[in-house]
Write a structure and sequence with these properties.
69% helix
Length: 249
């Protein structure tokens, strides 16, 4: 139970820390439960989208949906995407990339990455029928978090623990933990019509390609890499669903 609480404390801004104290070692095993938090964040997006669409245009409803997740997560993943793009866009060496990502100031690459992400998000999600859009938000959030979480099994942490922003290095998943994480994530895909389930392949490919790039450039991953990996994998899911929807019209 404390691992579940640790996961929600780490990946959201819910004030659970006011109700219960969780020992620090539980936070080393939160990534395998990342998809579980996706059910909450994806569900909040879907609910916000559905309610907003009753009285507002689809584009505004999509913007409200992503805003709801930003509030719930404290822009945790979005900050990671911006830092990742600043580092990998502006850094020419491993040391320089890591130094740029650790800098809290956002640069040109980070600004551009967020503009592109939010523009794609609103455009793609608002182009789908409301019911499909809502289910896509949940499935994309949960499944992409499972795919992105595999980075801790595929790469070592790129910094020393004391240099980590969160002061935590995640433990790799045990076989049992991996199966549990998969079982948490898989049902989200069943929310979609069966013709759209093939979209689940896109985040897997995006994850593997980014892992290869991280291995080549910094020989590991960081917390910012995890956030960027999730959002890019998620965006690949949205693009895939939208392409399939267009082909079926």
């Amino acid at each position: 139970m404390k691992r579940v609480l640790a996961a929600f404390m780490f990946f959201t801004r819910l004030p659970l820390w006011r109700m219960v104290e969780v020992p620090s070692h539980y936070f080393k095993r939160v990534v395998e439960l990342w998809p579980l938090t996706g059910w909450l964040t994806g569900g909040v997006m879907a609910l916000t989208m559905w309610l907003s669409a009753q009285i507002l245009p689809a584009t505004v409803a999509a913007l409200m949906a992503i805003a709801a997740r930003l509030i719930l997560t404290g822009a945790l993943h979005d900050d990671g995407l911006a830092d990742f793009c600043d580092g990998f866009g502006g850094g020419t060496s491993r040391e320089r990339i890591l130094a740029i990502m650790k800098d809290s100031h956002i640069g040109t690459y980070g600004d551009i990455s967020l503009i592109i992400y939010y523009t794609l998000f609103v455009t793609l999600i608002s182009s789908l029928p409301l019911h499909l859009a809502c289910m896509t938000l949940i499935a994309g959030d949960v499944w992409s978090k499972f795919c992105a979480s595999q980075v801790i099994n595929l790469l070592p942490y790129a910094r020393k623990e004391e240099e980590s922003k969160a002061r935590t290095i995640y433990n790799r998943m045990s076989p049992l933990a991996w199966v549990i994480s998969l079982l948490i994530a898989l049902p989200s895909l069943l929310l979609l019509p069966y013709t759209y389930i093939i979209s689940a392949v896109a985040p897997i490919i995006a994850t593997l390609l980014m892992v290869l790039m991280m291995r080549h450039r910094i020989q590991g991953y960081t917390g910012d890499c995890c956030g960027a990996l999730f959002l890019i994998s998620e965006m690949s899911f949205y693009i895939s669903v939208t392409i399939i929807f267009g082909s079926l019209r």
